[in-house]
Amino acid sequence: MLSVGILFSALLAGGVVTSLRAMADAPAFQAREVDVAWVDDLNRERERYRLTPPVSIFRINLEGVQEAIASRYPTAQVQAVRRVLPNRLVAEVVSKRVIAQINAAGGFYPVGAEGTILAEPRSSPWPDLPVLHLRMVQPRFAVGEPCDHPLFPPVSRLLSAVHRSRGLAGHAVRAVTFRGRTLVLALDSGVEVWFDKDQVEENWKRLGLLLTSSPKVLDEAAYLDVRFSQPTIGPKPEPKQKKGRR
User: Is residue 199 in some structural domain?
Assistant: First the structure.
């Protein structure tokens, strides 16, 4: 009797599994497209990404859908892909954050933290956005194309840190240049801050300690060199005194 009970339970379980599989593959649960919702721009109309062929909403690989959406919309960051019964998929995306603009032959290209070109270039600089000067940069970029310049990663890490700190003690970054191994941040006040391109994180911490102990140092210096354990503060030149009349 025990063996008969076990057999009956197995058959029942097998029937349930078969029924669930049949339900999962039913036409009513076939997803044919993905709704792309821009959650940071509610005025932007939803776009639709078609799935070919249709896939069961229960069997679809959500990570694969996320990768496909990211490839289709290179200027977007995919936050999530979720199922909506019976047969809808919704991808929630946000626009990638612009951290700088690359000065190239085609104009000024806005670039995201991961190096993606995010918009068509302008002939003049974008306002309130650091200008990145890179040697031997390719002449032109396409939207969605990566900037694979070897000097871009340290710039990205540094400008992302500046963004998280909402500037440098009230100063904004105007431009970024390189002098050999030295990465130079030019601030809107005319002050320069010098970093070692291979020690950005360590130099950034050193700058933070300096600004904590001397909050006004950026107002009083011509440049700050934080490449070494003992930062160097370059004083501003003394204003020239006007000669009196004879």
Answer: yes
How many CA atoms lie less than 13 Å away from 165 in the CB half-sphere? 19
Closest CA to 148 of 116, 106, 193, 184: 116
Mark whether 71 and 182 lie in a shared domain.
no
| 128 plus 88 within the same structural domain | no
Q: Where are the alpha helices (DSSP H) in 143-234?
A: 152-164, 200-213, 217-220
Report which of 188, 185, 176 is spatially closest to residue 226, judged by C-alpha positions: 185
Same domain, yes or no, for 205 and 188?
yes
Domain of 174 in residue numbering reads as: 98-235
- pLDDT (tens digit per residue) in 111-169: 999 899 998 899 999 888 999 998 777 778 888 888 888 999 999 999 999 988 888 98
Please state whether the peptide bond connecting residue 239 to the residue before it is cis, i.e. omega within 30 degrees of 0: no
Question: For 12-71, what is each residue's pLDDT tens digit?
Answer: 445 545 655 766 788 899 999 999 999 888 788 888 989 989 999 999 999 999 999 988
Tell me if 184 sits within 8 A of 178, measured CB to CB.
yes
- Bridge-based pairing of strands 182-187 and 192-196 is antiparallel
Q: Are residues 114 and 191 both part of a single domain?
A: yes
Task: Extract the tokens encoding 138.
Answer: 């390719």
Angle between helices 152-164 and 200-213 (to 10 degrees): 30
How many Cβ atoms from other residues are within 10 Å of residue 101's Cβ?
Answer: 23
**pLDDT, the chain, mean:** 87
Domain end point (choices 95, 122, 151): 95
How many domains in the chain?
A: 2
